Amino acid sequence: MHMRLLLLGGGSALGQSLIRQGAEEGISFLAPRPPESGWDASSLTQLMDETRPDVVVNLAYYFDWFQSDAVDEERFAFQQRAVERLAGLCNHHGAILLQPTSYRVFDGARATAYSEKDEPAPWGRRGQALLRIEQGVRAMCSRHVLLRFGWLLDDSPGGALDRFLRHSAKTSEMRLADDRRGNPTLVDDAARVMLAVLKQLDCQAPLWGTYHYGGHEATTQVLLAESILTEARTLCSLKAERVLAQPHAERASAENEPQYAVLSCKKILHTFGVKPRAWRSGLHALIERYYRHV
């Protein structure tokens, strides 16, 4: 890798996977510790002036965007301003900005996979905030790659998988939406995809724009839950015996979660040669890693 890579959010689950997989291929990242109050406009300005990277991978707000159960509009507004500042700094220094984002920018009202050509129309407040962040990146930085991921699963404390498994240890019946569909995307697979994108960018390929990636085989929330429980039972005793179907509209999370969140991955395949990987193949390893650290 000829480019100098700056990774914000290296301590996140996705950041750690990116660092680990990069090391296996001889790719290193400059991953500074964030200030105690988190990355803001002034600290990002100082960091960019000091490091002068060729590429910035921004995972600074990974947990809030992809794993947190809470939606804090004031917090998102602060992060939006910081990302806009970062995008402007990247543009000023001639750096590339690789910015993950989410399926949540779509409203989930259709029943066919969303492509990059489809107009975003977020349903929930998190999706609305992410769309504004996407728009800020496009407006402020010409050399950007926005990478929208499907349902991201990782082993982070307090994350979606953690909340599910803790709940499954306390109750015999779980209720989830059987009419909510998406692409489960394991954290190590997401890191693999980001590395593939970085390798192509290192070849000076001007492949700017927006791309989608989700694990192979779209599924429902109920079927994903059943798969997770099947793997988890081989590692730990759980109280949960079955998953009951509940309509998406009756779920409290319907306020912020699109009912249909399946992403088309054709563009990233044709542009970067990235093939979707079956999410089931890495599920056991992810859950095993989760229980090692829980």
Automatic annotation (TrEMBL):
GO biological process, one term: dTDP-rhamnose biosynthetic process
Cited SUPFAM superfamilies: NAD(P)-binding Rossmann-fold domains (SSF51735)
Pathway membership, UniProt: Carbohydrate biosynthesis; dTDP-L-rhamnose biosynthesis
UniProt EC number: 1.1.1.133
InterPro entries: dTDP_dehydrorham_reduct, NAD(P)-bd_dom_sf, RmlD-like-bd
Reaction equation(s) it catalyzes: dTDP-beta-L-rhamnose + NADP(+) = dTDP-4-dehydro-beta-L-rhamnose + NADPH + H(+)
Cofactor notes: Binds 1 Mg(2+) ion per monomer.
PANTHER family reported for this sequence: DTDP-4-DEHYDRORHAMNOSE REDUCTASE, METHIONINE ADENOSYLTRANSFERASE 2 SUBUNIT BETA
Functional note: Catalyzes the reduction of dTDP-6-deoxy-L-lyxo-4-hexulose to yield dTDP-L-rhamnose.
Family according to the record: Belongs to the dTDP-4-dehydrorhamnose reductase family.
Protein name, as recorded: dTDP-4-dehydrorhamnose reductase
Organism: Pseudomonas pohangensis
